[in-house]
Amino acid sequence: MNSLTPFPGQASSERVSFHRSELSLILSLYGRMVAAGEWRDYGISSLREVAVFSVFRRTAENPLYRIEKRPKLRNRQGLFAVVGIDGQVLKRGHDLKTVLRVLERKLIRAVE
Question: Name one Pfam family in it (predicted).
Answer without folding.
Answer: DUF2794
